[in-house]
Amino acid sequence: MISPDPRPASGLARWAESYKTKYERWQETRESRRCRPNVTTCRQVGKVLRTQQREHLQRARQQQFFRRRNLKVEEKGEAQSPQAGEPGPSRRQGQATDLKEPLSWAKRISSPRQQVSGTSSEVFATQHQPPSGSWRDPADHLPSQAGGLPPQDPPIKKPLKHHHGTQTKAEETQPTIKHDASQQTNYGVAVLDKEIIQLSEYLKEALQRELVLKQKMVILQDLLSALIRASDSSWKGQLNEDKLKGKLRSLENQLYTCTQKYTPWGMNKVLLEMEDQKNSYEQKAKESLQKVLEEKMSAEQQLQSTQRSLALAEQKCEEWKSQYEALKEDWRTLGTQHRELESQLHVLQSKLQGADSRDLQMNQALRLLENERQELQTKTERLQRDRDLCSSDTQHLQDQLKRSEEEKLALVTKVQQLQSLLQNQSLQLQEQEKLLTKKAPHVETTSHGTVTSLSVLKSAALAS
């Protein structure tokens, strides 16, 4: 059984974490990182360690490259002679070791308890493994994982084994080079049977790893949903617990205040008051029950009265039925009378139609007379308006004549006044001339100008 992760789920449930849980989670991640190899972004390893890892990776890739092509591995100038094994058993042994190697690697990675209890970075790495790695050799995966493993574990060197396909047994004189059987493809490329078998094995292993990853994903999703539910329930339980604790504190405070506030005699008094209240409540309950009983009795009486009224209504219904039968017979007689009256009505309608036609003719003649009367009335009104207009024009002309006469009289009076003024001015001028003749001759010129101006005034007065 996979142990659930004690850390709270990420996302919506993380906002409800307390400081204590956050500190514990931070401490767990710190411990998990401290136990890992010292290859992180915050702690750079030495140059020697990096070069050693790089050499290990390069050596492993080179060995795999030579092993796939059945070539000799040359390391530090020394040729390592391959071991020529038996065709059948060596092949089976090589296949078994090749199968055991990726299976042990998959088991080492797919321990669910370590993944669930590990850090979030490790879970993320197992979930998001690149799919392209499933098509490569497991021996390539093992050196690539060397960076995550401790540096004390060097890669395991295995002796090379040459596999034979459908080839016959080789001679003992050529122990170093052995040719494998191959198949010709459509494009002229020779593919070894060994490589085809290895590819099929790699495909099987990739499918197996994919199934394991799918199972892990399902388990992680179930764990995530369970953790979210557990966090929600714990959060709600904590809230309910806090509420209950608050209620208990308030009740304890109330009890403490009551015990501190009241003496035993006071408590007896309170109990007596509560008894009185109880008696009053019981009395009120009895009164309400009495009212309900009275209402019930009144309802029963109403029911009896309604039953009596129902019996009377049934009697009246019988009477109304008899009356209905009588009225039905009367209706039949009235129907016959109605038919007779309808026949008489048709006769009267024919007479009425004749009277209507005569009425229409009379109405047409009346409309003609009314039209003639209206035309005459319009003519008289037009003549009346013309007469009114003429009278208003004559009145206007008479008013204008009166105004002209008045203006004429006013002008005559003005002319007379001007003439009298002119005469006075002429007399004054004559006197002045007489006086001026006695004075200097230059004064004569000024007097001459005044005379001319007076003559002009006279002419203007006469013209007006």
UniProtKB/TrEMBL annotation:
Ranges of Polar residues composition bias in the record: 111-132
Basic and acidic residues bias: start-end ranges: 169-181
Classification via CDD domains: CC1_T3JAM
Keywords, comma-separated and alphabetical: Coiled coil
InterPro entries (alphabetical): Cent_Immune-Sig_Mod
Signal peptide: none
Protein name, UniProt field: TRAF3-interacting JNK-activating modulator isoform X2
Organism annotation: Tursiops truncatus
Chain spans, region Disordered: 61-182
Coiled coil: 267-435
